[in-house]
Amino acid sequence: RRVTSVRTSWFNFLSDRSSPREEVWEVAQRVESHGPVQVDEYTILIAALGRSRSWQRSLDTLERARAMHHDVRPFNAALKACKLSSRWDLSVHLLSEIRQSCLSPDAVSYSMAITACGEATVPSTQPGRRRPEPRPQWELALRLFEEADGPTLRDNNYPLHCAMAVCGKGGAWQRALWLFATECTAPQVSAVGYGTAIGACAQAFEWRMAVHLFDKSLSHGFDPHLKSYYGVIAAFASSTLWAQALSVFE
Protein backbone atom coordinates (compact mmCIF):
# COMPACT_ATOMS: atom_id res chain seq x y z
CA ARG A 1 0.00 0.00 0.00
CA ARG A 2 2.82 2.39 0.87
CA VAL A 3 4.48 1.78 -2.53
CA THR A 4 1.16 2.45 -4.27
CA SER A 5 0.69 5.64 -2.26
CA VAL A 6 4.18 6.89 -3.11
CA ARG A 7 3.68 6.07 -6.79
CA THR A 8 0.37 7.94 -6.78
CA SER A 9 2.04 10.98 -5.24
CA TRP A 10 4.69 10.91 -7.98
CA PHE A 11 2.09 10.95 -10.72
CA ASN A 12 0.10 13.65 -8.97
CA PHE A 13 3.29 15.71 -8.97
CA LEU A 14 3.97 15.02 -12.65
CA SER A 15 0.39 15.86 -13.63
CA ASP A 16 0.49 19.17 -11.78
CA ARG A 17 1.34 21.92 -14.28
CA SER A 18 2.72 24.08 -11.48
CA SER A 19 5.34 21.52 -10.39
CA PRO A 20 8.91 22.93 -10.48
CA ARG A 21 10.56 22.07 -13.79
CA GLU A 22 13.89 21.22 -12.20
CA GLU A 23 12.29 18.44 -10.13
CA VAL A 24 10.30 16.78 -12.92
CA TRP A 25 13.21 14.77 -14.33
CA GLU A 26 14.21 13.50 -10.89
CA VAL A 27 10.68 12.24 -10.19
CA ALA A 28 10.40 10.75 -13.68
CA GLN A 29 13.56 8.72 -13.05
CA ARG A 30 12.15 7.42 -9.78
CA VAL A 31 8.99 6.24 -11.53
CA GLU A 32 10.88 4.25 -14.16
CA SER A 33 13.21 2.70 -11.60
CA HIS A 34 10.31 1.30 -9.54
CA GLY A 35 8.65 -1.40 -11.60
CA PRO A 36 6.87 -1.57 -14.98
CA VAL A 37 5.38 1.64 -16.37
CA GLN A 38 1.94 1.42 -17.98
CA VAL A 39 1.10 3.22 -21.21
CA ASP A 40 -1.00 5.93 -19.54
CA GLU A 41 1.81 6.47 -17.03
CA TYR A 42 4.36 6.86 -19.83
CA THR A 43 2.04 9.41 -21.41
CA ILE A 44 2.03 11.43 -18.18
CA LEU A 45 5.82 11.16 -17.91
CA ILE A 46 6.42 12.40 -21.45
CA ALA A 47 3.90 15.23 -21.09
CA ALA A 48 5.51 16.40 -17.83
CA LEU A 49 8.97 16.41 -19.39
CA GLY A 50 7.56 18.36 -22.32
CA ARG A 51 6.12 21.04 -20.05
CA SER A 52 9.55 21.36 -18.43
CA ARG A 53 10.96 22.00 -21.95
CA SER A 54 12.99 18.77 -21.84
CA TRP A 55 12.06 17.63 -25.33
CA GLN A 56 15.17 15.43 -25.64
CA ARG A 57 14.23 13.53 -22.49
CA SER A 58 10.65 13.30 -23.73
CA LEU A 59 11.87 11.59 -26.89
CA ASP A 60 14.18 9.27 -24.93
CA THR A 61 11.25 8.28 -22.73
CA LEU A 62 9.10 7.73 -25.82
CA GLU A 63 11.65 5.21 -27.11
CA ARG A 64 11.33 3.20 -23.91
CA ALA A 65 7.54 3.42 -24.08
CA ARG A 66 7.56 2.16 -27.68
CA ALA A 67 9.57 -0.87 -26.64
CA MET A 68 6.83 -1.88 -24.19
CA HIS A 69 3.55 -0.55 -25.59
CA HIS A 70 1.88 -0.26 -28.99
CA ASP A 71 -0.17 2.89 -28.46
CA VAL A 72 -0.43 6.33 -30.03
CA ARG A 73 -0.86 8.25 -26.76
CA PRO A 74 2.84 8.45 -25.79
CA PHE A 75 3.54 9.69 -29.32
CA ASN A 76 0.95 12.44 -28.90
CA ALA A 77 2.55 13.54 -25.64
CA ALA A 78 5.95 13.66 -27.37
CA LEU A 79 4.45 15.65 -30.26
CA LYS A 80 3.25 18.25 -27.79
CA ALA A 81 6.64 18.27 -26.05
CA CYS A 82 8.33 19.13 -29.35
CA LYS A 83 5.71 21.78 -30.07
CA LEU A 84 6.28 23.45 -26.70
CA SER A 85 10.00 23.68 -27.48
CA SER A 86 9.36 25.03 -31.01
CA ARG A 87 10.83 21.87 -32.56
CA TRP A 88 8.30 21.75 -35.38
CA ASP A 89 10.67 19.68 -37.51
CA LEU A 90 10.72 16.91 -34.91
CA SER A 91 6.93 17.05 -34.59
CA VAL A 92 6.53 16.42 -38.31
CA HIS A 93 9.08 13.60 -38.11
CA LEU A 94 7.22 12.01 -35.19
CA LEU A 95 4.01 12.02 -37.19
CA SER A 96 5.69 9.86 -39.83
CA GLU A 97 7.16 7.69 -37.05
CA ILE A 98 3.64 6.92 -35.86
CA ARG A 99 2.76 5.53 -39.28
CA GLN A 100 6.00 3.56 -39.49
CA SER A 101 5.09 1.98 -36.14
CA CYS A 102 1.90 0.62 -37.75
CA LEU A 103 -0.23 2.97 -35.66
CA SER A 104 -2.88 5.38 -36.92
CA PRO A 105 -2.36 9.06 -36.08
CA ASP A 106 -5.51 10.44 -34.47
CA ALA A 107 -6.95 13.96 -34.32
CA VAL A 108 -4.60 14.87 -31.47
CA SER A 109 -1.56 13.64 -33.42
CA TYR A 110 -2.35 15.80 -36.44
CA SER A 111 -3.39 18.78 -34.34
CA MET A 112 -0.13 18.78 -32.37
CA ALA A 113 1.99 18.50 -35.54
CA ILE A 114 -0.03 21.19 -37.33
CA THR A 115 0.16 23.56 -34.37
CA ALA A 116 3.91 22.97 -34.12
CA CYS A 117 4.23 24.33 -37.67
CA GLY A 118 2.93 27.62 -36.32
CA GLU A 119 5.81 27.78 -33.82
CA ALA A 120 8.53 27.57 -36.48
CA THR A 121 11.34 30.12 -36.34
CA VAL A 122 14.38 31.12 -38.40
CA PRO A 123 17.63 32.83 -37.35
CA SER A 124 17.27 36.59 -37.17
CA THR A 125 18.72 38.61 -40.05
CA GLN A 126 18.92 41.77 -37.93
CA PRO A 127 22.43 42.68 -36.73
CA GLY A 128 22.92 42.11 -33.03
CA ARG A 129 19.64 40.27 -32.55
CA ARG A 130 20.02 36.74 -31.23
CA ARG A 131 16.39 35.79 -30.76
CA PRO A 132 15.06 33.85 -33.78
CA GLU A 133 12.24 35.31 -35.84
CA PRO A 134 8.84 33.63 -36.20
CA ARG A 135 8.30 31.92 -39.54
CA PRO A 136 5.08 29.88 -39.38
CA GLN A 137 5.12 26.99 -41.84
CA TRP A 138 1.50 27.39 -42.92
CA GLU A 139 1.93 25.56 -46.24
CA LEU A 140 3.26 22.51 -44.43
CA ALA A 141 0.39 22.78 -41.94
CA LEU A 142 -2.05 22.66 -44.85
CA ARG A 143 -0.38 19.56 -46.28
CA LEU A 144 -0.59 17.81 -42.92
CA PHE A 145 -4.25 18.74 -42.62
CA GLU A 146 -4.93 17.33 -46.07
CA GLU A 147 -3.25 14.07 -45.02
CA ALA A 148 -5.67 13.69 -42.11
CA ASP A 149 -8.28 11.28 -43.40
CA GLY A 150 -10.73 8.71 -42.16
CA PRO A 151 -14.20 8.98 -40.58
CA THR A 152 -12.87 9.77 -37.10
CA LEU A 153 -10.64 12.59 -38.34
CA ARG A 154 -13.23 14.03 -40.73
CA ASP A 155 -15.71 14.34 -37.87
CA ASN A 156 -13.23 16.16 -35.63
CA ASN A 157 -12.70 19.88 -36.22
CA TYR A 158 -9.65 20.18 -33.98
CA PRO A 159 -7.06 19.66 -36.78
CA LEU A 160 -9.04 22.05 -39.00
CA HIS A 161 -9.03 24.82 -36.40
CA CYS A 162 -5.32 24.29 -35.77
CA ALA A 163 -4.58 24.61 -39.50
CA MET A 164 -6.68 27.79 -39.67
CA ALA A 165 -4.77 29.28 -36.74
CA VAL A 166 -1.38 28.51 -38.32
CA CYS A 167 -2.50 30.10 -41.60
CA GLY A 168 -3.50 33.18 -39.64
CA LYS A 169 -0.11 33.30 -37.94
CA GLY A 170 1.58 33.07 -41.32
CA GLY A 171 -0.47 35.90 -42.81
CA ALA A 172 -2.38 33.53 -45.10
CA TRP A 173 -5.79 34.68 -43.88
CA GLN A 174 -7.45 33.85 -47.22
CA ARG A 175 -6.35 30.24 -46.78
CA ALA A 176 -7.76 30.26 -43.27
CA LEU A 177 -11.12 31.41 -44.64
CA TRP A 178 -10.95 28.75 -47.34
CA LEU A 179 -10.52 26.15 -44.61
CA PHE A 180 -13.36 27.68 -42.63
CA ALA A 181 -15.59 27.39 -45.69
CA THR A 182 -15.12 23.62 -45.56
CA GLU A 183 -16.40 23.64 -41.98
CA CYS A 184 -19.37 25.82 -42.92
CA THR A 185 -20.55 23.13 -45.34
CA ALA A 186 -20.62 20.59 -42.51
CA PRO A 187 -23.24 20.26 -39.77
CA GLN A 188 -20.65 20.74 -37.01
CA VAL A 189 -19.77 24.38 -37.74
CA SER A 190 -18.98 25.95 -34.37
CA ALA A 191 -18.42 29.17 -32.49
CA VAL A 192 -14.79 28.09 -32.04
CA GLY A 193 -14.44 27.87 -35.83
CA TYR A 194 -15.78 31.39 -36.21
CA GLY A 195 -13.43 32.61 -33.50
CA THR A 196 -10.41 31.03 -35.18
CA ALA A 197 -11.34 32.53 -38.56
CA ILE A 198 -11.84 35.95 -36.99
CA GLY A 199 -8.46 35.66 -35.28
CA ALA A 200 -6.78 34.86 -38.61
CA CYS A 201 -8.29 38.01 -40.13
CA ALA A 202 -7.23 40.08 -37.13
CA GLN A 203 -3.60 39.00 -37.50
CA ALA A 204 -3.69 40.20 -41.11
CA PHE A 205 -5.30 43.56 -40.10
CA GLU A 206 -8.44 42.61 -42.07
CA TRP A 207 -10.85 44.22 -39.63
CA ARG A 208 -13.75 44.47 -42.09
CA MET A 209 -13.72 40.72 -42.72
CA ALA A 210 -13.33 40.05 -38.99
CA VAL A 211 -16.43 42.14 -38.25
CA HIS A 212 -18.33 40.46 -41.10
CA LEU A 213 -17.61 37.02 -39.64
CA PHE A 214 -18.51 38.19 -36.15
CA ASP A 215 -21.89 39.46 -37.36
CA LYS A 216 -22.42 36.28 -39.35
CA SER A 217 -21.82 34.12 -36.28
CA LEU A 218 -24.45 36.12 -34.40
CA SER A 219 -26.95 35.74 -37.25
CA HIS A 220 -26.42 31.96 -37.08
CA GLY A 221 -27.43 32.01 -33.43
CA PHE A 222 -23.99 31.41 -31.89
CA ASP A 223 -23.02 32.91 -28.58
CA PRO A 224 -19.68 34.53 -29.50
CA HIS A 225 -16.66 32.55 -28.39
CA LEU A 226 -13.97 34.39 -26.41
CA LYS A 227 -11.73 34.06 -29.48
CA SER A 228 -14.30 36.00 -31.50
CA TYR A 229 -14.35 38.93 -29.10
CA TYR A 230 -10.58 38.96 -28.82
CA GLY A 231 -10.18 38.74 -32.60
CA VAL A 232 -12.53 41.63 -33.38
CA ILE A 233 -10.98 43.83 -30.69
CA ALA A 234 -7.48 43.00 -31.98
CA ALA A 235 -8.55 43.70 -35.57
CA PHE A 236 -9.88 47.14 -34.64
CA ALA A 237 -6.87 47.91 -32.45
CA SER A 238 -4.38 46.92 -35.16
CA SER A 239 -6.07 49.45 -37.46
CA THR A 240 -6.07 52.11 -34.69
CA LEU A 241 -9.88 52.06 -34.55
CA TRP A 242 -9.86 52.50 -30.79
CA ALA A 243 -13.48 53.59 -30.37
CA GLN A 244 -14.78 50.52 -32.19
CA ALA A 245 -12.47 48.25 -30.19
CA LEU A 246 -13.70 49.77 -26.94
CA SER A 247 -17.35 49.35 -27.93
CA VAL A 248 -16.84 45.61 -28.49
CA PHE A 249 -14.94 45.31 -25.21
CA GLU A 250 -17.79 46.95 -23.32
What's the story with the biggest beta sheet?
Answer: 2 strands, antiparallel
Order of SSEs: HHHHHHHEEHHHHHHHH
| Spans where pLDDT lies below 50 across 5 or more residues | none
Helix/strand class: mainly alpha
Strand content: under 5%
Return the domain count. 3
What is the radius of gyration computed over CA atoms, rounded to a whole number of angstroms?
Answer: 21 Å
Q: Give the end-to-end Cα distance, rounded to a whole number of Å.
A: 55 Å
Tell me the overall shape: globular
Keywords: Repeat
Organism: Noctiluca scintillans (Sea sparkle)
Pfam families: PPR
Protein name: Pentacotripeptide-repeat region of PRORP domain-containing protein
Could you characterize what this model shows?
The chain has helices at 2-15, 21-33, 39-51, 55-68, 73-84, 88-100, 107-117, 138-147, 151-154, 158-169, 173-184, 191-203, 207-219, 226-238, 242-249, and strands spanning 121-122, 133-134. It is mostly helical. The protein folds into 3 domains: 1-85; 87-120 and 135-159, no CATH class; 171-249. The radius of gyration is 21 Å and the shape is globular. The mean pLDDT is 85.
Describe, in short, the structure shown.
With 250 residues, the chain is an all-alpha fold.
Which helices and strands, and how do they pair?
Elements: H1 2-15, H2 21-33, H3 39-51, H4 55-68, H5 73-84, H6 88-100, H7 107-117, E1 121-122, E2 133-134, H8 138-147, H9 151-154, H10 158-169, H11 173-184, H12 191-203, H13 207-219, H14 226-238, H15 242-249
